[in-house]
Amino acid sequence: MNSCYSTKGSRDLFQNKLPGGAPMKDKLTVFTKHLLDFMFFAGIPVTCAVPFLTYGYGAFAPSYRRYMVVFSVILILSGVMALQILYELRRVFATVIAGDCFKNENTVSLSKMGRSSFVIAAVWCVRIFLDPTPSVFIIIAVFIIAGLFSKVLSRVFGRAVAYKIENDLTI
Questions:
Q1: How far apart are CA 56 and CA 96, in angstroms?
Q2: Considering only CA atoms, which of 48, 75, 76, 54 is closest in space to residue 66?
Q3: Which of 23, 119, 157, 164 is the most exposed place for a label (fewest CB within 10 A)?
Q4: In whole angstroms, how far apart are CA 28 and each of 3, 25, 39, 62?
Q5: Smallest Cα–Cα separation from 86: which of 45, 43, 121, 120?
Q6: 124, 81 in Cβ contact below 8 A?
């Protein structure tokens, strides 16, 4: 079990390594890292292909045909922000795998993920006025919640980093 969750002493609380100081390389963590890598690198060409995909989908959906340029801009901006989120998640997972997750860089990454989530929600608010569907409201709600969660988690990590630094200085 990861000693990050240990109840032994305050010093053990911030030692985010497996017993013996080994990095975290359990199957779930490694699988998640590979999934994030795949999503990031697959997301780049998909985001670039949005205008073509939107044009193709416009043949089946009249609202897409009518607002094809606006929908393309919404999807491209959302794709770029989603890639930013995936990039920051990959950075966080690199520190988790290395066994040192309580770093200020993770606080910054979580804050950036929150900002990107809010941008996605704001961009999708434009679509409410063009083609309001239940999925639009769900996407907005999901990214507002993700943004709030990321911002709060960033502050929690910031406090944990401060406690870790203080604890390291006193011992």
A1: 41
A2: 54
A3: 23
A4: 17, 8, 16, 43
A5: 43
A6: no
Q: Which pair of structure tokens corresponds to residue 45?
A: 């060409």
CA distance 121 to 99: 33
Alpha helices (runs of H) in the chain, residue ranges in sequence order: 10-13, 27-48, 50-58, 62-66, 68-98, 104-130, 134-170
Rounded Cα gap, residues 161 and 167, in angstroms: 10
For residue 25, give the amino acid letter.
K
Question: What six digits make up the tokens of 63?
Answer: 């609202």
pLDDT, averaged in runs of 10, over the chain (171 residues): 40 42 74 94 96 84 82 95 97 88 91 98 94 93 97 93 81 59
- 132: left (phi > 0), else alpha (psi -120 to 50), else beta? beta
Extract the tokens encoding 99.
Answer: 């066994």
Q: In terms of Cα–Cα distance, which of 41, 49, 43, 119 is closest to 78? A: 119
Which residues lie below 8 Å from residue 6, measured CB to CB, with a gap of 6+? 12, 13, 15
Q: How far apart are the first and last CA of the chain?
A: 24
